[in-house]
Design goal:
single chain; globular; binds 1,3-dihydroxyacetonephosphate
Length: 343
């Protein structure tokens, strides 16, 4: 391990008001997104789609890193360029999703544990050799009647910390992602309580496993009311609850927190991130950034729809969303940006 390189990569992922493009959907998830738009679910089309995303002109103005999936890193662009090389050539740091998915947690109906620790050491060594410089592991925490349980929170926090320690030893920056899901009718206050407990437990485990906080990125969910909660809070209330929760749980040594979008609309995700940076910039020790999947990709995938003739327009839509979120990092996003003819 070269500790300096890890710290530099972690910093680079959140510097210059840029964010991370999550394009690491597993095959089942990518297929689900394709099916919703009537796009055939083939390896060739998954490649075409991702080639369209990564060759977006000017993408590196707002995107520092791209999280890829194992299938993608072994593919080549239409012109024969290896996919990882195309990412590097685009001025973007290539990363990789390494968890093997969230599986049912034994004895705890409705709860999940992310698998993938067995053999991870060897996989990380291969990924480093291939040129990947950061990794992602996603744990999911559902809110519902009687859940999350302590068992679920602790098992996932422990796995996240062991994954993070292995990454740093292999020379990759770990993105630590404990996602508290939006599904449910819970209030924002309930989400706050759960998120606070989850983050406390995760950082306790990271400390126990001696993970270097300066060499990681936290990928957090915003503190939100459940999707079917009667009271949907304002942008300002979400910003306040989220920052308050993070200030109480995330050590200042962590260079950056990059939010997932989790099913929020693209515009709302930008507005909420913007509000946090407008209102709390002077109080926060870490960069507040983005690592969106759907909130960056959704307009582009709808335009592309499986037809490469649509790629230039789809790329403009991706560029626009990335640019909006870069503005949100600087507290300069506003709704007028969405009216721009250039989008
Ligand atoms: P969403 O922004 O679509 O939630 O995806 C982010 C991600 O990487 C989930 O692991």
């Amino acid at each position: 391990m070269n500790p300096k390189e890890i710290l530099d990569t972690a910093k680079a992922l959140v510097s210059d008001s840029k964010g991370i493009l999550a394009m690491d959907e597993s095959n089942p998830t990518c297929n689900k997104r394709f099916a919703a738009l009537g796009i055939p679910r083939t390896a060739e089309l998954r490649l075409s789609y991702r080639e369209m995303l990564i060759t977006t002109p000017g993408l590196c103005e707002s995107i520092s890193g791209a999280i890829l999936y194992d299938e993608t890193i072994r593919q080549h662009l239409n012109d024969g360029t290896p996919f990882i090389k195309a990412v590097v050539d685009a001025g973007i740091i290539p990363g990789i999703k390494v968890d093997a998915g969230a599986k049912n947690l034994a004895g705890h109906p409705g709860e999940k544990i992310s698998e993938g620790l067995d053999g991870l050491n060897d996989r990380l060594a291969e990924y480093f050799k291939m040129g990947l410089r950061f990794a992602k592991w996603r744990a999911v925490i559902a809110i519902g009647s009687g859940i999350p349980s302590q068992a679920c929170i602790e098992a996932n926090a422990h796995a996240l910390a062991r994954y993070a320690a292995l990454c740093q030893e292999a020379g990759l920056v770990p993105i630590v992602e404990p996602e508290v899901l939006m599904e449910g009718d819970h209030t924002i206050e309930h989400c706050y309580e759960v998120t606070e407990e989850v983050l406390h437990t995760v950082f306790e485990q990271l400390y126990t496993q001696e993970v270097k906080l300066e060499g990681m990125i936290l990928k957090a969910s915003m503190v939100l009311p459940g999707l079917t909660c009667q009271k949907q809070n304002t942008v300002e209330e979400v910003a306040e609850a989220t920052v308050k929760c993070l200030l109480r749980t995330v050590p200042a040594a962590v260079p950056g927190i990059a939010f997932l979008s989790g099913g929020q609309s693209a515009e709302l995700a930008s507005e909420r991130l913007n509000s946090m940076n407008v209102r709390f910039k002077s109080q926060i020790p870490w960069a507040l950034s983005f690592s969106f999947g759907r909130a960056l990709q959704q307009p582009a995938i709808e335009i592309w729809s499986g037809n490469n003739l649509n790629s230039p327009v789809a790329q403009k839509a991706l560029y626009h969303r990335a640019n909006c979120n870069r503005a949100a990092r600087r507290g300069k996003y506003n709704n007028d940006m969405e009216k721009n003819d250039e989008k």
